[in-house]
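lol ok so funny story. i was supposed to be doing the assay writeup but got distracted and ended up predicting the structure for this chain instead. priorities right. anyway since i did it might as well share w the group, maybe its usefull for someone
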Amino acid sequence: MFSGLVRQFAKVRFYRNQILCLESDLNPQIGDSIAVNGACLTAIESTKTHFSVELSKESASLIATENLQGLVHVEPALRLHDGLHGHIVQGHIDCVGVIKSIEMQTNSYVFCIETTQKALECMVEKGSVCIDGISLTIHDVGSSSFSLVIIPHTMQNTLFAGYTIGRRVNIETDIIARSIVNMFHKYMLTHNNPNKKQVIQDIYDSIALSY
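and the output, tada:
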């Protein structure tokens, strides 16, 4: 599990045959989970100057592999005593999105990202989303895209400053929102013409009973 609070970059040494080698002083243990641009990957080699991770075919098919060059965001897995400063991030990429526009707004930037309907179903205004490993707050959700307001601190301390229109980004929706949407769809499949209030109450009860 990760928090989406990236404090380190790594430089890609090479990416071939689904092996990604990164120059970094992170020095993880073999078998450690490392989020690279938001994707949870397993360390298979590690030294004081670099480490390597391996991508499965599924992982490679779900992420924007063209961005595995130059600098990438890296985050080690959370430890029990670490603070959760972002939100709960699994490192399981749902899909990619495409940056459709970037607009300056006072001292911040508004990024509009087009993505799938399935991902948009799991997004709400002021909810959380993880973009390329960065925990961010959703500004608005439209019919085919959503927007983010990127503050100066985020621009200065992540790779967002170099992002341009047309770039593909890795998206992980919030696990809590995704679970509720999944429960809703399952409920609708097993109940004929359910009352809206009853649907909400049953889902609420199901969540409450899980704690």
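The chain has a mean pLDDT of 89. The domain at 95-177 is CATH 2.40.30.20 (Elongation Factor Tu (Ef-tu); domain 3).
back to the writeup now i swear
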